[in-house]
Amino acid sequence: MLARLLKRSFANQKKAMAIMVIAVAFGTALAASLLTVSFEISNRVAVELRAFGANISVEPKVEGMAGLAGQTRWLNESDLKKIKTVFWRHNILGFSPVLEAENEVEAAGRRERVTIAGTWHEKKLQLPGEERKFSAGAVSVSPWWDVQGAWPPDDSSVAVGSALAARLGVSTGNAITVSGRRFTVSGILTTGGREDEQVVMELSALQSLAGLQGKISRVLVSALSTPMDDFAYKNPDKMSRAEYEKWYCTAYVTSIAKQVEEVMTGSRARPVWQVAETEGKVLDRLRTAIYLLCAVALAASSIGVATTMITSLLRRVEEIGLMKAMGADSFGIARLFLSEAVIIGLAGGLVGLLASVWISGEIGLRVFGTKLAQRTMLFPLSVTIALVISVTGSLFPIARALRIKPAVVLKGAE
Question: What is the C-alpha separation between 339 and 2, in angstroms, rounded?
Answer without folding.
Answer: 9
